[in-house]
Amino acid sequence: MKKGFLLSLLFVFVFAMTACSSEPGSKEKDGDKAKLDIFSWWTGAGEEDGLKALIALFEEKYPDVPIENAAVAGGAGTNAKAVLASRMQGDDPPATFQVHGGAELNEGWVAAGKMEPLNDLYEAEGWNDKFPQDLIDMVSKDGNIYSVPVNIHRGNVLWYNKHVFEENGLEAPTTFDEFFEVADALKAKGITPLALGDKEPWTATHLYETVLLGVLGTEGYGKLWTGEIAFDDAKVVEATEIYKKMLGYINEDHASRNWQDASQLVANGEAAMNVMGDWAKGYFVNDLKLVVNEDFGYIPTPETDGMFMVITDTFGLPKGLSNAEDVKKFLSVLGSTEGQDEFNPLKGSIPARVDADVSKYDQYGKDTIEDFKSAKLAPSLAHGSAAAEGFLTKVNQAVNIFVTQLDVNQFTDSLTSAAAELK
């Protein structure tokens, strides 16, 4: 009888401990402290260096808080978002996770009731006037702020190999007409004009959205996401036709390459140009050891001068964590001038704060910080800011088919149908 009682007591104890260990934010412990698992998709050159620098800064400031880099590889978070969805749905959120400001955050995790507001943290850290109001709006819903931006990326950048352009007497194109003139001249010399790596379809969507921005401008582009302009509008179809023409100048092996591979084609002179966000600069400089404005140059994508396709990586506080105060310590470091200036020069992005130390940034960083002050902002579709994840998934699928089949009518119908489902 006594033995049975002890076994029952042991079972209750084990069950209690198991239940305790399954609480969000407390699965992995170091001593008595829950470990901060920082969830992102930053595993490539530049971005990984930036994240490691942030973590090292946090460990220096809070040596008693155990922290883990829980990054999952995959461009634009393709794999990480699937893992995150599984964890969040299973009530096992990471301590904090990378999420793009805009629809991905607000129409996704905030609307699902999975995030804690951070108004108190912003107040305590004095951040309300340290981030641009437009940026705070991108991480807010119904009057509450839900995440901390660590950076600003520009999506509408055309990168080009300066040596190839100089050797062929070419200037970087600022209009679509100039782009095709340059592309024809390069093609005649046996040089691939435009590098693309759409092994993951988001890269082709990224190229498409820059064409949309160039044709529609920021105002018209913004109206796509409110339904004021339809995807079968004449200007949208015009953008699709331009996009189709651009795809006639890409490398034949585009479907087997990722964005780094495409960037490498430009770096080694096999291709002359590439359209990618400025994480490409981090890759050029940190991984390939190229020199800004010597080996490669940069210019806004055709017809988008004075416009800024904004992508911001942010981190928030999931609901139900046992170590929420420690998470806020990490967020305070991430949002500090010191944290942003450690991270962004390595990542290739510019700081989200308005009071960062500009001297810590290279010429690209300085130019982009200056551009951001006056440019008209546009949210990125490819990176989750302009529209909800469900719509983006359908766009990526449609773009993937279009790159292969180049059927403008079919593509237009697919986008129109996807948009109708959002209403």
Verbal overview:
- The chain contains 17 helices and 17 strands.
- It has 423 residues and is an alpha/beta fold.
- The strands form five sheets. Strands 3, 4, 5, 6, 9 and 16 form a six-stranded mixed β-sheet that branches. Strands 12-13-11-14 form a four-stranded mixed β-sheet.
- It has helices at residues 2-21, 47-61, 78-89, 103-110, 119-125, 133-138, 162-167, 176-188, 202-226, 234-246, 259-267, 279-287, 324-334, 337-347, 363-374, 389-405, 408-420, and strands spanning 29-30, 33-34, 36-39, 67-69, 96-100, 115-116, 140-141, 144-145, 147-149, 153-154, 157-161, 192-195, 271-275, 296-300, 307-311, 313-318, 376-379.
- Strand 1 and strand 2 (33-34) form a beta hairpin.
- Put simply, the count of helices is 17
Specify the structural class. Answer: alpha/beta
Q: For the report, how would you describe the main beta sheet?
A: 6 strands, mixed
Number of strands: 17
Rg over C-alpha atoms, rounded to the nearest angstrom = 23 Å
**Poorly predicted ranges (pLDDT <50, ≥5 residues)?**
1-30
Strand content: 5-15%
The whole-number mean of residue pLDDT values reads: 91
Shape: globular
How widely separated are the two ends?
66 Å
Relative helix content: 40-55%
